[in-house]
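Changelog excerpt

This revision adds worked examples to the README so contributors can see how folded entries look when concatenated. The first example is reproduced verbatim below.
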Amino acid sequence: MRADTATIGQPLMGARVTLDSAGPDFSVVVPAYNCAEALARSLSALRASDVSLRQWELIVVDDGSNDLTTSVAATFADVVLTLEHGRRGPAFARNRGVERARGEYVVFVDSDIRVHPDALERLLRALESGDGPTAVFGAYDTRPPEPGLVSQYRNLLHHYVHWINAGPAETFWAGLGAIRRDVFLNMGMFDEQRYARPQIEDIELGYRLTAQRYRIALHPEIQGTHLKRWTLGRMLATDFRDRAVPWAQLLLDRRSQTRPETIGGTLNVKRSEKVLTLLTAMGVVLMIVALVTRQWSYALSGAACFAAVVAANFRLLSWFALERGVAFAIAVVPLRLLFYVVSGAGAAWAVLLHALPTRRSDMSLHRAVP
């Protein structure tokens, strides 16, 4: 296969692209950065999909890599776009890929996901059903290849959260998701200016879509294997910097423009999760007070808060035990508590930033969230 390659500089801002009726049924867009090994596994799985190769095109957008990513992409892809001026982030990369795409639908797949053979067919079938939604996304499977505790926990947690929230969704996931291309373009695509690094650009797009009455559906039976290796430090940094803080900022921005009761009802922003985050924060504060005052009644109260959080996660921990054994379920309890600590710290930091005059001035430069 000989890929069509191009170097892309500036984006086509505000583009409204007219579809070519002779083009493929759908286009798969994969953003990639310094991921040659994982990308080869991801693209080979895509090419082995059940859908005929004549029905779709594969577009890889190399986000300024300095390894063999471009060479690997050229082996598998129909089109390889190389971005200039250094790394711009997956939101920018995906947008450039969609501008080049010719399909009626666009499927986004992360470069470290190995899709199941039926994933593309299931996505297309969901979008083309009689009362099909505008956008659909799937989930990780339960077979992450990285053996470490953090990698197993992180990927299994993602699968579980998506599985129990199957059905109508308020947000979108671009790791393995599809959307009507005309709607994506007319909505202004991913917010590449606000999210210049891998953060919550897909979640923000989902909120904009639902605000405009477009339907999004979560189909967790549409799956891919996540190849990423997680470390504890990487998980904590991602949860704080790239998830908790920007997500809380987004919700605060939306709260000032929409009715509060319309915000945050799916996935891990449910009211119950907020209560558990608060309980964990109380537990941490009580433990600190116990250490300072040496009054151990505070420690018992803090331990009671933690115990309540663990009890509220009984269903999740039971599922972990079924999947990986009781020892694994016990081992991930501290990781679960850390999640709530980081979420609370991120939310507090976001509230502080939101209150600063400079923050409000900066937000005026971004596109308003419907």
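The second example, added in the same revision:
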Amino acid sequence: MKIIKTSEKGIDHLHSILQKKPKTVTKVSFWKIPHRTQKEDICLKLARYKIEDTSLETLECNNPKSELTLDNVEFENLLTFLSENYEPFKQGIKKYIPIDDRFDPESIEHLRAIFDNKDKEELLKFVAQHNILPEELISGLKYQSQKNAILEFEELLNQDLLEKDWQRWFTRNEWVLGSEFVKILDEREIDSDNIADYLMKAYDGFLDIIEIKRPADELPFWADKKDHNNYVPSNELVRAITQATTYIFEVEREANSIKFCERVRHVKTIKPRCVLIYGRSDGWDDGQCEAYRILNSSYHNLNIMTYDHVLKRAKRILNIEDEGPPEEPNDEFPPF
């Protein structure tokens, strides 16, 4: 346990031994010098002493082998120097820009201008080819961006948004839709009468569908009353399921259409599947969780997820702890 002592003159001090050799000992000391203005200066003293000349208790000596005392300004500048430069120097980085208070707005705007290139693909190639950003920084930026997206998602759940608002959010954050999807296709139109929220390219190269309905009180997941003591889907959910299954059917009908294949080129259309994102599940009891599992199991090409399921999966992807109670008995979401 470290003990801060006070001298007869009222100066607090703390000592520690950095290294002890057979003939010398190196000591570091903090000194807190009070002022009448209530300001306190912290000084740092580094000293090396001969063993026979001093006590290891206080390490005070009139004739130190070597001694250096840094005043408050020098000590703070030393801390800044160490915090900015130790890790880059240790890692062998030859050139770097410390991020501190001296990194003024003009410098920030200069950096922003560099990365605000309209040709994003060309910019990414340039950064990668010249190893401008280290891998850990790229990973950290991606993680922080996705974490901010989760925080935004939670805030949006407390707002009464339109479906188009949620479409924009999912378009910006398609990673939450799951690793089974590679990207959102530019095309949304199945035929003149059916336009899906998202046509997706799955990891296996085939076309799948994402359909979302905004989370709202007027779009409940379960019916107001049970049927034979069983939870049953609300009429609104049944209509959403019907719409989703219709999209699946229409995509299958268009699979051999030359025009459709040209619009979704490089994606194969065989037995499409659909994810329907609908409603909330944060207040479900065990019976509702079980009914949800049974409902999902009755479809082989449709997977229904609530917005809370999406949130929970996104947190799991980022390894963020979810302190809330489990929403369903199983740890995994229902597969297709």
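Reviewer comment on example two: The chain is about 35% helix and 20% strand. Residues 101-132 form one domain.
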